[in-house]
Amino acid sequence: MAAVQVLPITTPPVPASYKSPSVPSTSRISPPHPSGHRTLLPVGPAYLNHLRLSLHHAHSFSSLDKHLAAERERLAALHKDDAAGEDDLGVGSEKETDELLSLDPKEWKKQDHYAVLGLSHLRYKATEEQIKIAHRKKVLKHHPDKKAGTNKDANNSLYLAGVNQNTNDDAFFKCIQKAYEVLTNPEKRRQFDSVDPVFLDLEEDIPSAAEIKAKNLDFFKTLGPVFELYSRFSNKQPVPGLGHIDSTKEEVEGFYDFWYNFDSWRSFEWLDKEVNEGSDSRDDKRYTEKKNKAERARRKKEDNAKLRGLVDMALSLDPRIKRIKQQEKEAREAKKKGVTPGAPAKKTKQQEEEEKKKAEEEAKKKEEEEKAAREKAKKAKAAAANAAKKARRQARAAEEAGAQS
Amino acid sequence: MSSTPAQNGRANTPSRPPSSTPTSSLPPVVGINFGNSYASIAVFTKEGLAECIANEDGERQIACAISFHGEEMYIGNQAKQQLVKNAKNTITGFRNLLGKKFSEIPQSEHTTSAPVIQHPELPDTPAYKVQILQPAPSPLPPSSNVGTPAASHVPTPKSEPTPAERILTVSEVTSIFLKSLVQSAQDFLGKPIQGAVISVPATFTDAQRAALEKAANDAGINVLQLLDDAGAAAATTTTPLWAGENLRPDRTQLLVDVGSSSVALTLLSVREGLSYILASSNIPSIGADQIDDKLIKFFAADFTKKTKVPLTVCPAPANSPQDQRAEAKLRLAIEHTKRTISASPGAATCSVESLKDGMDYTGTINRMRFDMLASPIYAAVAKEVHTLLTSAAVDAHDVDEVVYIGGTGSLPGLDDRLLLEVGLREGVETPFARGTVVGGGVGDPTTILARGCAYQAALINSLGDSPEEKELREAFTRGHKASDVKATTKTLGVLIPNDLEENKELGGTWVPVVYKETALPVRRVVQFDVELNEESKRLALEVWEVSEGIRIEKVTQSAPSPPSGEDDEGENLDEDEEPEEIEVKHRVVTKDTLLGAIDTQAKLGVKTKGKGKDAGKTFTTVEVQFVVGIEGDVEVEVREKGEGGVVERVHVSSL
Q: Where is the composition biased (Acidic residues) (chain B) (predicted)?
């Protein structure tokens, strides 16, 4: 639609005596200046619209309006793509709770760095690019330079409640900087991810074997997410998932094989006790370091044990194991009977192995036989050679004897 | 319907992208204002606005000069400095020679810079000859087997560069210069420039335009459009940023472009972003150089007075190189003085070290004295404006806005003088009245053209490659038939009948909607408030075509007249003794043709509460849309704003 000019005009009411004049039906506007009388300057968006109007839309405003609306939509869609794919990378903007804003930068070890940067929906999955973008967004919003002078609404309830809402204070900005520092350093980020507070919370919710049995929980729905949760710590990616009830024997075995040999990067440096800054004592430092090291090792061991326990529990509860065992049993029995059922059961591993063994044995036998045959032939050959020697010797002896006589 | 005032529509340009747009989406285009003495460049900044940027030397006004000194080549303001000691190898004022034949160029005997000569090979082509030092070829490496044993192990030193002559055509000089401008823009944006719009004066012939385009192409610049100065100015002045809040979208605009060597005046009709030239004139006999000359003479006289060293300038005698050099030095120094005068009301200084005979000079000049010196030039400009308005049959009272272009346009004295002498109406919009001149405001006369070019470049750059868009692209070239339009001859609008005292003649309040000289087809929507009678809620409108005129009223005034300028106080004293007659101009409207009438009952209406003077009255907001077709048919729609409001239509068929 065309732009509306709002005029600062207010008119009094129509006088009662006013009579609407009759309009002569022949009234027309005065003839306009003929075409070419004026030459527009080819500048500006207005000229572009004029061109569109006269070249493509046959001077129809409604047609142009439609075209422009469509164009705007197209551009908006294009821009949305831009925003999602190019500049934003799906960082988006998260709501900042008052709790978050009142964080104390001194307690930075305890803060949730992802939440501070507004990345709590991505967490360990956030890429370096995304962290950079998120940081930039936060800095633009919370930089102390931007805050100066906006401290007008100091008498709001939060301020009165003693929450750190003083916008001139750069506390939250410091938190942002700390979070960025941690998350952009791969080593520090690994340490933080190892003890990610959200992960720890989720870890506590893992149900025990007894619980699952008692509540008759669905095995896959309960433990699937748990393994997914832990899969982040694997050095080897991708990590096999728990799968579903119809997973094949290989899949199931592969899964347990992987998780029993889980190669984790999880470490616990983050929870180290700080070396007392004030003391210069070397012994003190060494003592703390030693303790930390021991603590780390203990935690790591604990973590490994926990994971192993988890896998054990899964194995003990896995309905598929029962099925596989059942199948193996059936296969064995079928073999014992020596009857191949009309519909042969799936070849179990044992069967396969047996067959393999058999084949191997056969091969061995064959080889031995061949060997024996070869040896026999050798012997025969040797015998033949000996016989020939003997014959020659005898012949020579006979000749000598002939000559002497 | 958008409530923000905007242009005739919104082009889908990235020229005003939303603020969230990342820097990477800045259009990679540059607007170049290529003047004869100064150039400026503008690009889009992160804020999505075209801004005039500084080159590497920190100069927003880049002198059009190239100087050769030894092996070095200087471009811009550094080159201008060379005019003092190295004038013969410094090339200035080359733009106006573009596309001209040698025989067409008037041979003036007085030039301080490199003289224009006939190109030794190309027929009838102007060129410049400069002395340069050619770097000697680098010595052969010591390892090369030349047959003679080396005298020492020390590598052979490079030989001295050899003096040589270099002949440059005007086109080559322009290419070098434009390339440096685009390079500056590129460095600023950090990515290659894909297109440029270059401004040209309206007086440029087709041959000159072609030559400029060729020179730009030689420099590797993709020229999107060569834009007339008036067009570039219009591109800036039709942006929402310029219009601000109180500038009407329909206005008659006077462009005053005071260049160094000529004055270009243009009267524009601006109609919601669409603009065309009503009249224009170019006066080569007036220019800011004359102000420079006067200023130099003033300072030279002051110098002589202070130091007793005789100094003759403007022109400096040919046999006195000291005087010539002193003039060149002063010419450079007064640039600063003029800028100070424009920017601040205090006195401006002019300092030159060792102006002549080893004597330094420092002098000051205040605005009043400066305006006195420049007075003849101001007066000449004012006279030309008057001539232009007369030739266009536009009364000075009808000019709604004055826009100044060029460094001289920043002088407040010029503005004062024009307003007074031309008889523009009080409250005419000027950048000075709006306070947008100094401090890099939108009205800064030195950057208007470059910014306009940048806006235009972004607009053209946004067009795609589809055949339709290509057609649009073509229509931006000069003289395309699509720019020829029909235009209305008289103003159309609505009359709201009432019995106010001031509206006795018309019988109501006149609201003009489609002004005269508006290109067809046109659509306009206006919105205003109407008070309703509480019982009848009667809403009546008449659609009229009117002619506008000006009534001159003579008012006898016995009080002392307002000072008509600070420089002629003496005359004022004489005049004060007798009462003076002052002409007061009023706009008058004469109803010509009744096109339609609406008498209906409003359905909405809000009673104003509170204790104001409007309390207890009922108002409704009315929106009136006029669509005038290409054949002169008129469609008027009156709509009460809001849900369920009354809608009435009037149709006037075509001629």
A: 565-580
CA-wise closest residue to B247 among B430, B486, B438: B430
- Chain B residues in contact with A77 by the CB 8 A cut-off are none
| Short-list B644, B394, B338, B337, CA closest to B517 | B394
ipTM surpassing 0.95, yes or no? no
CB contact under 8 A, A49 and B272: no
> What band does A2 get if pLDDT is binned at 50, 70 and 90?
low
Q: In whole angstroms, what separates CA B207 from the centre of its chain?
A: 24
The verdict on a CB contact (< 8 Å) between A5 and B5 is: yes
A22–B528 C-beta distance less than 8 A? no
**Exposed/middle/buried for residue A327 (C-beta within 10 Å: 0-12, 13-18, 19+):** middle
A55/B472 Cβ within 8 A: yes
In which residue are the tokens 């978050």 written?
A100
Q: What is the pLDDT of residues B349-385, one digit of tens each?
A: 999 999 988 999 999 999 999 999 999 999 999 999 9
HSE of B311, CA atoms in CB hemisphere, 13 A: 32
Annotate B491-557 with three-state secondary structure. EEEEEEECCCHHHCCCCEEEEEEECCCCECCEEEEEEEEEEECCCCCEEEEEEEEEEEEEEEEEEEE
Q: What one-letter code names the amino acid at A221?
A: K
Contacts A–B by Cβ distance under 8 A? 277
Domains, chain A, ranges and CATH? 98-150+165-184 (1.10.287.110), 199-317 (no CATH)
pLDDT tens string B450-493: 999 999 999 998 887 888 888 888 888 877 788 888 888 889 99
Q: Establish whether domains B288-371 and B487-556+580-652 are of one fold.
A: no
Mutate to test the interface with A, among B237, B456, B486, B504 (most CBs of A within 10 A): B486
CB contact under 8 A, B273 and A47: yes
Residue A157 buriedness (CB in 10 A; 0-12 / 13-18 / 19+)? exposed
> Please, which pLDDT band fits residue B431 given cuts at 50, 70 and 90?
confident
- Whether the CB-CB separation of B476 and A42 falls below 8 Å is answered with yes
| Stated pTM of the model | 0.67
CATH fold of the domain at B24-135+160-242+445-484: Nucleotidyltransferase; domain 5 (3.30.420)
Q: Do B533 and A16 touch (CB under 8 A)?
A: yes
Chain B residues touching A54 at Cβ < 8 A: 482, 521, 630
Alpha carbon distance B258, B284 (integer Å): 10
User: B288-371 maps to which CATH number?
Assistant: 3.90.640.10
| Inter-chain residue contact A10 with B531, CB threshold 8 Å | yes
Tens of pLDDT, residues B89-104? 999 989 988 888 888 8
Q: Which residue of B has its CA nearest to A48?
A: B11
For residue B109, name the pLDDT band (cuts at 50, 70, 90): low
How many residues in total does chain B contain? 655
Domain B487-556+580-652 has CATH 2.60.34.10: yes
- Give the whole-angstrom CA distance, residue B253 versus residue B278: 10
Q: Where are the domains of chain B?
A: 24-135+160-242+445-484, 288-371, 487-556+580-652
Candidates B23, B630, B636: best to mutate against A (most CBs of A within 10 A) is B630
Q: What's the confidence (pLDDT) of residue B42?
A: 94
The predicted-structure confidence for A20-67, as pLDDT tens digits, reads as follows 888 887 778 888 888 777 888 888 888 888 888 888 887 788 888 888
Q: Which residue type occupies B357?
A: D
Q: Provide DSSP, B215-273.
A: HHHHTT--EEEEEEHHHHHHHHHTSHHHHTTTS-SEEEEEEEEE-SS-EEEEEEEEETT
Asked whether the beta carbons of B497 and B507 are under 8 A apart, the reply is yes
Mutate: best of B21, B26, B197, B499, partner A, most A CBs <10 A: B499
